Amino acid sequence: MLKLALTTALVAALSFGLSHASQPGKVLEGQKMQSTILKKAVDYTIYFPPGYEPGERDYPVIHLMHGGGDGQNQDWYRYGAANQVFDRLIESGDVPPFIAVTPEGRRDEDNKFNTYYMNDADGAYLWQDMFAQEFVSYVEEKYDVIPGKENRAILGLSMGGYAAMAFSLKYPDMFVGAAALSAAFRTDQQIVELDQPGYDRRYGKAWGVGLKGKDRLNDAYYANSVLDLVDKTPADNIKETAIYIDCGASDDFFVGNSELHLKLQKLEIEHRFMAREGGHDWTYWRTGLPEATRFIGELFRK
Question: What is the pTM of this model?
């Protein structure tokens, strides 16, 4: 009986240890930051790694940017199963534990006009300023996050991929790495040829509603177009952030992503560029997230 009792106790102890070790990470939706710049509360979703306990240790952070259209801050977890991907990579030791946070990129529930994570041309809605001046520091002050560039990265899909590349060029001292899946940026010619409703919804507030043809290629456009930012950003500044680009061969944004790759190659800037079979959808993003996360994880280890 004693032997049976000891065996039962041992099994229970081992089971407790295994369940504790495999405890999944936590995802909290519906979080809010009060923004002085936007004069409103900004929603966000945050991920904590397996075994996370407040106050026990500090972690690096990934700003995980969602896509445009009807995209919102919960999407990475509801459709992309990002928490499961992160849990597996952390528990296998492929990447160090980290916190991930996704700010809301929509301006309102109606979402008639995308922000594209930019400031409005007329200054009415300054999403980019909110992120750079308020949100990044807010996350590092409120949560158990290691402050500073070397422990901060940005990873996004579609419109969020645009943000990852644009912010890496605009703020070379902000992120150790930037990873983009199916980054949503177009060539100058594609912008000129874009249908009017499509242009107005995506870029109208950032560059000017109702602009047609080459009138869209104004100062606001050139200040935000990734393919033009690369041309006027000093190469040494671009090198300050490790860059990872992954775009499907059947994606409408493949031309823009390929052009960015070629521009970086011409500047002799080391970066990762991947082109896989696939289009602009969650199947592609789910399969691309693990390698993009490993890329960032290696930067955190350094």
Answer: 0.92
Q: Which residues pair with 45 in a beta bridge?
A: 102
Rounded CA separation 184/67 (Å): 9
Pairwise CA distance, residues 168 & 171, whole Å: 5
H helical segments located in 92-158: 127-130, 136-142
**What confidence score (pLDDT) does residue 23 get?**
87
In sequence order, which residues have a C-beta less than 8 Å from that of residue 242 and are 6 or more positions away?
176, 177, 178, 271, 295, 299
CA quadruple 170, 125, 186, 281: dihedral positive or negative?
positive
> pLDDT band for position 302 (50/70/90)?
confident
> What is the amino acid identity at position 37?
I
Cβ 268 vs Cβ 253: under 8 Å: no
User: What is the percent of the chain with per-residue pLDDT over 90, rounded to a whole number?
Assistant: 90
d(CA 73, CA 90): 22
Domains parsed from the chain with CATH numbers: 24-301 (3.40.50.1820)
User: E strands of 9-88, at which residues?
Assistant: 26-35, 40-48, 61-65
Contact 290, 82 (CB under 8 A): no
Calculate Rg over the CA atoms of the chain: 21
User: Is 240's pLDDT higher than 60?
Assistant: yes
